[in-house]
Design brief:
mainly beta; 24 strands; globular; binds molybdenum atom
Length: 347
């Protein structure tokens, strides 16, 4: 993994090493905001509280005894690909590897919400982690702020999982041991690690990581509104060739990558070797999957003429959404899903 920051720990998956749809636990990127909490599983409890009839606490063993489900889901950091922004943006300089795909196993959130009994007016579910720290904002909050996000009730009841296994193994500390949330199809800031509280609320959550950070400007009907980031936008990334790779002129090269989208499926991926002027259809590998990336390949004949070439991939989802040529400035330095150039040398 590529170290992007030591404190807090931020590590990137070297995307040019992509081989399989499932990312191994060792190769899975890490994005922390605060020091990692070390939690003793026998002391861990999950509080289910707020706008419910019967608030209760769950121990780790109790959680393991509840119905379990597994889902293959891609996590992508909302700031993935930030290094491609011009002018340069502040924050983690993610290249292509602020994303990974794993099989996550745990208890559906709706199981514990139903046990608690939702009160009328229950609107959102706040997920809170055990980690916290000071924020870089003015005015500075009085005490440390926990990492927390909310999901609307419909999402909470449909596919959110309280996860204790990643690719069949116990979660590691960096990925949220003992329990994390997985919010399938959403940018990964919603998949709260070191989960300790589930708070049902009848108001829209106004937390820092919900409204100030990890939010964007949404324009509609002449209005502009601050909206929390949610589902992943459609995206294809090229794994090989990687930037600055030297490819022999006139040879056959298997271009390879992955493409994904949240709450939909990838329908096609196209490839361009002329900076996006012309496009050719690539071959999708494996099965179509909701919320998980799909590998793709393209048998490319490298140009006979030597020089610098700009390769691009472009994905389209089942709703017809496709990638644009420029970053949407209303998204700030998040949700970067315009076609990314991979500049290579043909020699
Ligand atoms: N408690 C907690 N949960 C968190 C975070 C965090 O800092 N604290 N980071 C979020 C962000 S921004 C991302 S991209 C993912 C990263 O998950 P990973 O480290 O398992 O890849 O965790 C999310 N959940
Ligand atoms: Mo993230």
């Amino acid at each position: 993994l590529i170290i992007r920051s030591r404190d807090p720990k931020v590590q990137e998956f070297p995307f040019s090493s992509l081989e399989t749809a499932i990312t191994s636990n060792e190769q899975f990127y890490v994005r922390n905001h605060f020091p990692e909490p070390i939690i003793d599983r026998s002391a861990w409890e999950l509080k289910i509280e707020g706008c419910v009839d019967k608030p209760f606490k769950l121990t780790y063993d109790e959680l393991l005894s509840l119905p379990q489900r597994s889902v293959v889901s891609t996590l992508e950091c909302a700031g993935n690909n930030r290094v491609f922004l011009t002018p340069p943006a502040r924050g983690v300089q993610w290249e292509l590897g602020g994303a990974g795909t794993a099989e996550w196993s745990g208890v559906p959130l709706n199981v514990v919400l139903e046990r608690a009994g939702l009160r009328t007016g229950a609107l959102e579910v706040i997920l809170e982690g055990a980690d916290s720290g000071p924020l870089e904002v003015e005015p500075k909050p009085a005490g440390p702020v926990a990492f927390s996000r909310s999901v609307p009730m419909a999402k909470a009841m449909s596919d959110v999982l309280l996860v204790y296994k990643m690719n069949g193994e116990e979660l590691t500390v960096s990925h949220g041991f003992p329990v994390r949330a997985i919010v399938p199809g959403w940018y990964a800031m919603a998949s709260i690690k070191w989960l300790t509280r589930v708070i049902v609320t009848d108001k829209t959550f106004q937390g820092y990581f919900q409204t100030t950070d990890y939010a964007y400007w949404h324009r509609h009907d002449g209005q502009i509104e601050r909206v929390p980031i949610s589902a992943m936008l459609v995206k294809a990334e090229i794994s090989r060739p990687h930037a600055n790779e030297v490819v022999a002129a006139g040879t056959n090269y298997r271009v390879f990558g992955a493409a994904w989208v949240g709450e939909s499926q990838v329908q096609k991926v196209e490839f361009s070797d002329d900076g996006g002027k012309s496009w050719k259809q690539t071959r999708l590998l494996g099965d179509a999957m909701q919320n998980a990336w799909r590998l793709w390949e393209f048998e490319w004949k490298a140009p006979a003429e030597k020089g610098t070439y700009t390769l691009m991939a472009r994905a389209t989802d089942a709703n017809g959404n496709t990638q644009g040529t420029q970053h949407n400035r209303d998204f700030g330095d998040y949700m970067i899903n315009h076609c990314l150039p991979v500049v290579i040398e043909v020699r």
